[in-house]
């Protein structure tokens, strides 16, 4: 008797396609949700860490004229306030002109004094001569007047005739005229002497006043203070006592901490991860991390400054960098006063996700 054994061949169980489709959709939705969560909500863990230096616009300070440094009033690498004297200088160009003017004024005084002395002496001699002539003329007039009176008396007793009386009368009139003219001349000469004295004194006073003006002008160009146009840290001092400085040359530079910023040196491969207005943190010795903001990214490639060069591969011929300017956020005045120009700092810039950056741009 034969028995029929069941077949050992496995039979294929049909799978419903709707089951896979339902689970596949769930997986896709979960993946999309995870990606969105990472892009938009998870905090960034990656940071760009580079070196930087405290930087700022330096205000140049120098004379606007050819000057000689007379005295140093401020020390380099110290804080100065606005309108503080930095050095005392002399205007060499005006000093030479005023010195010549002073010499001319002194010469004018000597000349006026000499003219006054000699002129008055000559006028006084002429006045004395005129006075003597006038006195002689007056004496002659007095004598002829006496003769005329005597002649009249003699004519009264008929001792002399009318002709003698007429001659005596004419001589008396002529002597009177000469005496009056001589007296007038003497008075005129005296007035001339007086006027010469007044004019000479006025000329001397004018020359002396001119000398005072020249002395004042000459003194005004000596020891003139060169003032600080702004307050800040005094840097790059090139003032040396007794040195002649041309107009426009810079003797000092002033760093203003309230306008300070940080220049970060970022490798070009890292710059693509940065963007303007990104948050940054500046680690300054003694102050810790200070929040800041990326304000600009320079397109030019530059060398690393010697201040930040430590290894041979950081030499200019090996490495190049992009400059990133970073400004401080809400830095207190006391903190800004502690900033030093060229100070080396550590910069940390957290990287933002692509999704967050896209949303910010949107």
TrEMBL record:
Signal peptide: none annotated. This is Uncharacterized protein. The chain crosses the membrane at residues 24-42. Coiled coil: none annotated. It is found in: Membrane. Its main location: membrane. Keywords: Membrane, Transmembrane, Transmembrane helix.
């Amino acid at each position: 008797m034969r028995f029929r054994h069941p077949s050992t061949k496995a039979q294929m169980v049909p799978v419903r396609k709707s089951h896979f489709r339902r689970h596949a959709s769930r997986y896709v939705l979960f993946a999309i949700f995870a990606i969105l969560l990472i892009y938009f909500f998870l905090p960034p863990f990656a940071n760009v860490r580079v070196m930087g230096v405290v930087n700022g616009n330096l205000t140049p300070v120098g004379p606007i004229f050819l000057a000689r440094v007379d005295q140093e009033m401020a020390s380099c690498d110290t804080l100065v306030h606005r309108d503080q004297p930095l050095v005392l200088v002399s205007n060499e160009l005006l000093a030479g002109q005023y010195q010549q003017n002073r010499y001319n004024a002194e010469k004018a005084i000597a000349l006026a004094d000499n003219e006054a002395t000699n002129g008055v002496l000559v006028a006084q001699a002429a006045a004395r001569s005129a006075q003597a002539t006038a006195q002689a003329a007056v004496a002659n007039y007095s004598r002829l007047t006496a003769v005329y009176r005597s002649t009249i008396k003699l004519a009264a007793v008929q001792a002399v005739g009318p002709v003698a009386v007429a001659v005596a009368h004419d001589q008396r009139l002529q002597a009177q005229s000469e005496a009056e003219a001589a007296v007038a001349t003497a008075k005129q000469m005296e007035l001339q002497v007086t006027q010469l004295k007044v004019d000479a004194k006025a000329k001397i006073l004018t020359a002396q006043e001119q000398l005072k003006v020249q002395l004042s002008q000459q003194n005004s160009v000596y020891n003139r203070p060169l003032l600080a146009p702004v307050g800040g840290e005094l840097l790059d001092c090139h003032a040396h006592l007794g040195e002649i400085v041309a107009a426009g040359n810079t003797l000092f530079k002033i760093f203003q901490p309230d306008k300070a910023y940080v220049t970060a040196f970022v490798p070009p491969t890292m710059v693509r991860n940065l963007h303007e207005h990104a948050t940054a943190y500046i680690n300054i010795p003694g102050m810790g991390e200070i929040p800041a903001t990326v304000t600009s990214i320079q397109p030019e490639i530059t060398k690393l400054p010697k201040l930040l060069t430590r290894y041979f591969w950081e030499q200019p011929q090996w490495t190049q960098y992009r400059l990133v300017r970073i400004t401080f956020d809400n830095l207190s005045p006391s903190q800004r006063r502690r900033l030093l120009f060229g100070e080396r700092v550590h910069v940390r810039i957290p990287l933002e996700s692509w999704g967050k950056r896209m949303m910010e741009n949107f």
